Amino acid sequence: MGFGVLPLMEYIARRAFLAAGLRPSTITLPSTSDDGGGEARTIHYWAPPGEPRLPPLLLIHGFGPMATWQWRGQVGPLSRRFHVIVPDLLCFGASSCASSSPPPSESAQASALLDALPGLVGTTAAARVAVAGTSYGGFVAYAMARAAGPERVGPVVVSNSDLLKTAEDDRAFLERAGGRWTRPVDVLMPLDACGARRLMELTFYRKQATAMLPDFVIRDTMQKLFSDKREEKIELMNATTVGTDAFQLTPLAQDVLLIWGEHDQIFPLDKAFAVKSCLGESVRLEIIQKTGHVPQMEDPNRFNEIVLDFLLASQVTPSTRQDQ
Q1: What range(s) does the AB hydrolase-1 domain occupy (predicted)?
Q2: What is the pLDDT of residue 35?
Q3: CA atoms 223, 97, 110, 44: torsion sign
Q4: Which residues share a beta bridge with 158?
């Protein structure tokens, strides 16, 4: 594996989670078949051991290789005020991707997390769990909030997640990527050094040190990251209903915070204002300057400050809005 970049990154992420008091675990989901048969589905997650003593907060990752990389800058600060739970979505990380099941849409991912909630937060936890999702995870967070309602889910943080994405947006994204690829999934899951460098340029506003590594190191790293469950993830992306006639964006009853990186090239900033307009004028939008698609990684201090301010304020003055 060359210089061992992947083990080093995994070690750094794991160390951040352990330092925050989170430990890895697995939960088996209830069967979805009438007779209780079928292949078991499991969700791997990180959380503090024992019953929650703080309000529960679910951090939902995007379409990356694993949750720990995307949230390593948040678990420490947020764990001081919340019982932080970080799951791997189905078909990601160490969670299962049952071959006998259809590829899960973002709504099916949300349903799986809702099924898992009793095991994730225990029986003595507060009735409501706050959720925060980034990119694809924002699709799931929105689907959870809409399906479960404010009695079980809320408040909601959606970061850099284009809930109004269309086929035209996908075509524009491929043009920004350089015209070499024909499907967004091929840009988002590269297997060669050229594709990986372009993905980093599209994802981050600031130049990444890993972009300076030799081609063979980057290539080997990408192949290890994105070969696992590749076909299942392609099917999963194709199963996403956002951007199809099966999905309609409607306001939520919960308090909602939108966060966007100023220079996002995957979901450009103009989409943030369009999403906010559809979700309602009471929705709060925060733009983090000098960041791209992952502001929680590029400016974790500002991201954490915004999220904590929103979540703590929502605890004091919960939303009184009704379903629309």
Answers
A1: 57-305
A2: 46
A3: negative
A4: 133, 258
Total number of domains in the chain:
1
Cα–Cα distance between 273 and 280 in angstroms, integer? Answer: 11
Instruction: Determine phi and psi for 98, rounding to 5 degrees.
Output: -60, 125
String of DSSP letters for 126-147: -S-EEEEEETHHHHHHHHHHHH
Please check whether residue 96 lies inside any domain of the structure.
yes
Percentage of residues in the chain having pLDDT higher than 70 = 90
Query: Which pLDDT score, from 0 to 100, does residue 8 have?
Result: 82
Amino acid making up residue 307: V
Nearest to 285 by CA among 299, 271, 264: 271
Reported as a single tens digit per residue, the pLDDT across 129-187 is 999 999 999 999 999 999 999 999 999 999 999 999 999 999 999 999 998 899 999 99
pTM of the complete model beyond 0.85: yes
Helix, coil or strand: residue 41:
coil
Residue 183 lies in a domain: no
- Domain limits for position 136: 5-28+39-165+233-314
- In the chain, DSSP assigns E strands to 23-28, 42-47, 56-60, 83-87, 129-134, 153-159, 256-261, 284-288
* Two structure tokens written together for 221: 């790293």
User: For residues 299 and 263, what is the distance between their CA atoms, to the nearest angstrom?
Assistant: 13
Q: For residue 175, how far is the Cα from the chain centroid?
A: 24
